[in-house]
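User: Show me a protein chain along with its predicted structure.
Assistant: Here is one chain, sequence first, then C-alpha cells.
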Amino acid sequence: MTLTNSETKLTDFRNATIKQHWNDPPHKVDEHEKLDAAQTRIILKTILEDCKQNVKSSDKRIISDTEKRLELLFEVLEKGQLSESVLGRLCKMCEYAEANDFANALAIHSNLMTTDFDKEGKWLLGIRRLLDLYRKKSNEK
C-alpha cells in the first residue's frame, strides 16, 4: 500500500514542546532568594540603628546626614522608582553588609557609584557612610 502526500502524516519539530532542554536557563539562577525593596529597607534601618548605639560625638553629624540621605532612598523604594538593575545590586550589597562581607559590599557600591551616580548619588553617599560606620563598629567588637 502506497501513501500519497495527502495521506502522509508529517510532524513538524518547530511546534514541539521540549521540557528541560539542554539550552534552557535554570529556573533558579541564584541559590539564594532575591531580596525585595521592603527587606532592603529593613536591613538598612537595622544597620543604621546599630550604628546609632554608642555613637561617638565625632560621628553624630555623619549619622544625622546619613539618616537624611537614606530617607531619600526609602522614598524612592516606597514609590517603586528604583530600576530593577539598581535594586538588584542594592539587595545584594545589603546581603553582603549583613554578613559583614564589607569587601564585596563596597565593590558593589563602587559599581553603583560609577554607573548610577548621576541619578542616585545623594543616597549612594549615605550608603557609603553607613557601610563605613558599620565596618568600623564591627571591627571594634
